[in-house]
Design goal:
The protein has about 100 residues and is mainly β. The chain has one domain.
Amino acid sequence: MEQSYWFITVMEKIEYDTKYSGLNTGCTRCCGFYTSKNTALKVLHENWTDMWETIYDYAVLEEYYEGIDNFTMNRQFFKYDREKDGYVEIDEPECVKHLYSFAIG
């Protein structure tokens, strides 16, 4: 079986911007990737290296495989929880259902 990679991307916000008729994520950055989904989930749940940085309220975990122009629909969205100091799973926001590949353009 081919090796997959789990990329973590954090975003300031996830909203549909009616002024520009498109998705507005504010500041975003890809924090890194792991070969283990369980490790990537632990990283998000425990906010390793302070990925939140007081502004990145959302995150997405996406599975990719080696190659050019590949995309994924195997993903999970998260929202930062201050009490837990980590990201918790949320339902996929409606405004991103038609989009893919946040980590790799």
